[in-house]
Amino acid sequence: MGRASAVCFEKRIEVNVTTGTIKKVVSDRGFGFIAAADEKEYFFHRNGLDSSLDFDRLVGGEKVEFEIEQSPKGPRAAQVHAA
Question: What residues contact 72, with CB distance under 8 A and at least 6 apart?
Fold first, then answer.
């Protein structure tokens, strides 16, 4: 039997973190919108929040940081956490 070997390559991915404020929460549908520092508005889904935020307690006005990712419907906020 031969020996198995693994090669590990480090892949660096540039991640842009953006700041903003929760603008609107549609609690019964599980999503909302963030007004970002770049003056754009980003959609977020409750699954895009990390443990520092409780979707069921969001009311708007909370300061957040997030990553922008591309989705089939355009850019959206991901990895959203309290600022």
Answer: none
